[in-house]
Design brief:
122 residues; mainly alpha; elongated; DUF4233; transmembrane; DUF4233 domain-containing protein; membrane
């Protein structure tokens, strides 16, 4: 009896594992963005309508991208979400703070994806 053939780091399906990492990151980010809506609406000083819409829109995009990570362009779109979150810092400082937290996390997910696919046989 021979051992089952596995991919890099012993993964049977490295693509699914990498997509799972990316989807988990996007789900957490989307939930945090949704949780940020109430403080933006109630505790913000001044008119935060644009920041609220950006926050809600980015949350929806995060959830949509979770199911599209099998396409290479969706990983780039996830990076665009992080840049948009950082740019949202011009609307409210909390969006910049979330971009500083989730941007490096997404860059790490991209690093993991690249390293897993670089070691993929064939």
């Amino acid at each position: 009896m021979s051992a089952p053939v596995s991919g890099p780091a012993g993964l049977k399906n490295p693509g699914a594992a990498v997509r799972g990492v990316g989807a988990a990151g996007l789900v957490v980010e989307g939930v945090v963005l949704l949780l940020a809506l109430l403080p933006l609406a109630k505790l913000g000083h001044g008119d935060n309508t644009a920041a609220i819409w950006v926050c809600a829109g980015l949350a929806v995009v995060c959830f949509l991208l979770c199911g599209l990570l099998r396409h290479g362009w969706a990983w780039t779109a996830g990076l665009v979400v992080q840049v948009a979150l950082l740019a949202g810092g011009f609307l409210h400082w909390s969006l910049l703070a979330l971009g500083i937290v989730f941007g490096p996390a997404w860059l790490y997910a991209l690093y993991v994806r690249r390293s897993v696919y670089a070691n993929k046989p064939g």
